[in-house]
Design brief:
alpha+beta; 8-stranded antiparallel beta sheet; 14 helices; 48 strands; about 20% helix; globular; disordered N terminus; binds ligand MIG
Length: about 800
């Protein structure tokens, strides 16, 4: 028995699980009165709690519960982009037991006693999601000992019935598999270098998930920034629950039934990703750290000499003067402007890292403008007792900005002038969990107060939104400093809504095969959580890789939105040529392929911007009626048309690939397959199994070594016909740099092609937007060589 307990303890330490037992909590209700509002109802309960149901759209309902007190007047979230919704038509009916609210799509039943909520399809009356128990709260402090800061709030939770065949997706950045069923997670932004599968939490908090059962999907966004918990049937066979250590039980219920529709609504609610500059899709190279300037030049010239495409090079923390953000080290980078101009002439942009820690100079006679100004303006975080909060990060003793203050955000944004004036093209925000070397759990920040719109709340509430607001300050600053350019911001930590301001990468991975395999479920899950622009350090960050791992890593990342090779300071060099010509030649092939596919990638990226549907997709997103895709996370798709099944293990040159129903063509051989089955394919090191959907037209451009090297002319549509000999595709074009696309300066063209007696004829099906792409030619070729 003893031995068994030890075993359990070990298992407990390596798998994610937590001890919060929500069945011990007080239940809300029952309902004693119902008050109709302009867009729903407010329920008052016997325990003095209130529940507000608001209809935002016919497929989007908000539930807000306030325990033992009325719903407060203040209603604010940093995540929400759209607050004013036009109430759709709806209806309400009441019986002694039930209150039923219907929209064109949803039927919501509220049971008065006990207070239980059920969501049904309005047309079929099929149950989609229902409470397993009433919403609960920890009035007696049962869970207080487990909380980060019991003084900052009360544990609140909602519990849903777990479907026998219910699958769970999303939840942002988790070091976990695609289907989150039977797993549980914590959200508490954390600096977790070298994380491995099931390490939780890691950097980001996106408390949004999608449930899927029998092909019918719904979404739940639990908009609460306190440390939060999600349990998808880990601790119980009956229950999927979520909760948080404070704040309101405030969630949004989305009805699909299609996942794509949910993602569109989620983007409407929390913001659509703006388009980054087109060159952000180019290949990027980083290192902790390239310096001095001549070394940066060497890296770039090596890329050019070797005919390897490159658009961006990153400067990590050593470009600064003693890690002082908004400065350059004068010995290492005497003339940053000359450097960016020189690299610019070779088609390469420079991105600099910017951390939140502002050095708090130990020598009080030292003048450091960022510290001096921020201190004078009172923009730094303080402890409850009024002391300046002094975390220790790269510069040593530092301070953090209170980004909840609008003037502080503006100031921070404006500080970036030193970068824009020096031709720096983008900003990379790191360490913004915020990481503190004194204590990574946040305990050292327990009593740090943020202005928070006058609420003067503490770390328990503000930790998870810190990065969101820092990225926002950065993005808005770049927008002001360079109004004719799209900002390009990369962040490590985040909260929901981050897509409005920043792209992301998955932090400090390992150079291991296991870490590579995690790329796919992590990228696709982020895409299912409203973050389309994702990527991971190609080759892995920590540890020594090898040529084979690097090649296989490029075979995943050459189609990821963010394709950047990066390596830890003391790691073995990892640029594409470091393991010899054999590997370099293969990497070149994939980087070149990425650049010819840019018209396709950019078209798919714009779709993500417009519709919220990511480009890097799990198969379940395109085939949610096919149960074979529900737990499939070693393959991915780009848009609707390209299916990729990388090799994720060493010494393997063959694998099984699942092709969903339809016609598919092997990208390399054009061999035709009937889908709906698993096939076995060869995958020697120079080949990543890749298939094109029959019925697709893939726009490809000329080979290039950087975006803008030459005009995207001609654009060739590769036609992969369906069984009727037709295909369709789209092409999105704009200037690739300015925000003019937001006011119509784009062109989106849809094309169709039909097989005739003398080959394919392509034609324009529709055209939108005012942008004139100039005299570029469009060709239509049969990719499959099938004229018959
Ligand atoms: O404490 O800036 O994830 O990409 O190279 C480490 C140095 C700080 C962590 C980032 C990594 C970066 C590194 N940073």
């Amino acid at each position: 028995m003893k031995r068994f307990l030890v075993l359990i303890a070990i298992l407990g330490a390596t798998t994610t699980s937590f001890a919060q037992d929500i069945t011990t909590l007080e239940k809300i209700g029952p309902v004693v009165s119902v008050q109709r509002t302009s867009n729903g109802v407010t329920l008052s309960c016997q325990d003095n709690s209130q529940v507000q149901l608001s209809i935002l759209a016919s497929d989007l309902i908000r539930i807000r519960a306030s325990f033992t007190k009325p719903i407060p007047a203040r209603d604010h979230s940093w995540a929400i982009a759209k607050e004013n919704w036009t109430t759709p038509r709806w209806d309400i009916s009441e019986t002694p037991d039930l209150i039923t609210i219907t929209t064109d799509e949803l039927e919501v039943t509220l049971h008065r006693s006990p207070l239980l909520i059920e969501f049904r399809d309005a047309r079929t009356h099929q149950l989609i999601n229902s409470d397993e128990r009433p919403m609960s709260y920890d009035a007696n402090g049962r869970l207080a000992s487990m909380m980060f800061d019991p003084k900052a709030g009360m544990f609140v939770a909602a519990s849903k019935k777990l479907g026998f065949d219910e699958h769970f997706y999303g939840l942002g950045e988790k070091a976990a598999r695609l289907d989150k069923r039977r797993s549980s997670f914590v959200n508490w932004n954390s600096d977790t270098p070298g994380y491995t599968e099931n390490k939780d939490p890691i950097y980001q908090t996106i408390p949004f998930y999608i449930g899927l059962q029998r092909g019918i999907a719904y979404g739940i966004f639990f908009d609460n920034s306190y440390r939060s918990y999600f349990d998808f049937g880990k601790s119980s066979q009956q229950r999927a629950w979520f909760g948080a250590e404070g704040g309101e039980l405030n969630y949004y219920f989305f009805y699909g039934p299609s996942i794509k529709k949910i993602l569109g609504r989620y983007a409407d609610l929390t913001g659509h990703m703006p388009l980054p500059p087109l060159w952000a899709l180019g290949n990027q190279q980083s290192r902790w750290s390239y310096y001095p300037d001549t070394m940066v030049e060497e890296v770039v010239s090596e890329y050019r000499k070797r005919d390897l495409p490159l658009d961006v090079v990153h400067l990590d923390i050593d470009y600064m003067n003693g890690y002082r953000v908004f400065t350059f080290n004068k010995e290492r980078f005497p003339d940053p402007k000359a450097l960016t101009e020189k690299l610019g002439r070779q088609g390469v942009k420079v991105v600099t890292i910017v951390d939140p820690g502002i050095k708090n100079p130990p020598d009080k006679n030292e003048r450091y403008h960022a510290f001096d100004e921020g201190l004078a303006k009172n923009f730094f975080q303080h402890r409850r007792n009024g002391d300046l909060f002094v975390p220790r990060v790269w510069p040593g003793e530092s301070v953090f900005v209170d980004y909840t203050m609008p003037e502080a955000r503006k100031w921070w944004g404006d500080l970036h002038r030193v970068y824009t004036d020096n031709g720096i093209a983008g900003i990379w925000n790191d360490m913004n969990e915020p990481s503190d070397f004194v204590d990574q759990t946040g305990k050292n920040q327990l009593d740090v107060v943020s202005y928070d719109e006058g609420e003067k709340s503490t770390h328990a509430k503000n930790r998870n939104t810190f990065a969101l607001l820092m990225s926002r300050a950065t993005y808005e600053g770049l927008e002001r400093l360079r109004p004719d350019r799209r900002p390009y911001v990369i962040t490590r930590a985040a909260y929901a809504g981050i897509q409005r301001y920043a792209t992301m990468w998955t932090g400090d991975t390992n150079s291991t095969w296991d870490a590579l395999a995690l790329n796919i479920p992590m990228f696709t899950s982020l895409g299912l959580s409203g973050e389309p622009f994702v990527g991971s350090d190609v080759g892995g960050f920590i540890g020594r890789g090898n040529g084979e791992l690097l090649v296989r890593s490029y075979q995943v990342s050459f189609l990821a939105p963010f394709c950047r090779n990066h390596k830890v300071i003391d790691g073995y060099d990892q640029e594409p040529w470091r393991f010899g010509k054999y590997y370099e030649d293969i990497i070149r092939k994939y980087l070149k392929l990425r650049y010819t596919l840019l018209p396709f990638l950019y078209t798919t990226l714009e779709e993500a911007h417009r519709t919220g549907v990511p480009l890097f997709r799990p198969l379940v997103l395109n085939y949610q009626d096919d149960p074979s895709t529900y737990n499939l996370d070693d393959q991915f798709m780009i848009g609707n048309d390209l299916l990729v099944a990388p090799i994720l293990k060493p010494d393997v040159s063959k694998r099984l690939v699942y092709l969903p129903a339809g016609t598919w063509y092997d990208y390399w051989t054009n061999k035709k397959y009937a889908g709906g089955t698993m096939i076995s394919v060869d995958a020697p090191l120079d080949t990543v199994p890749m298939f094109v959907r029959g019925g697709a037209m893939i726009p490809v451009g000329p080979s290039m070594n950087y975006v803008g090297e030459k005009p995207a002319d001609p654009i060739t549509f590769k036609i992969y016909p369906d069984d009727n000999g037709s295909a369709s595709g789209a092409l999105y074009e704009d200037d690739g740099l300015s925000p003019a696309y937001k006011t119509g300066a784009f062109r989106r063209t849809t094309f169709t092609a039909r097989r005739g007696p003398r080959g394919f004829t392509g034609s324009v099906a529709s055209q939108e937007g005012t942008y004139n792409p100039g005299p570029r030619r469009t060709n239509f070729v049969s990719a499959t060589d099938e004229r018959r």
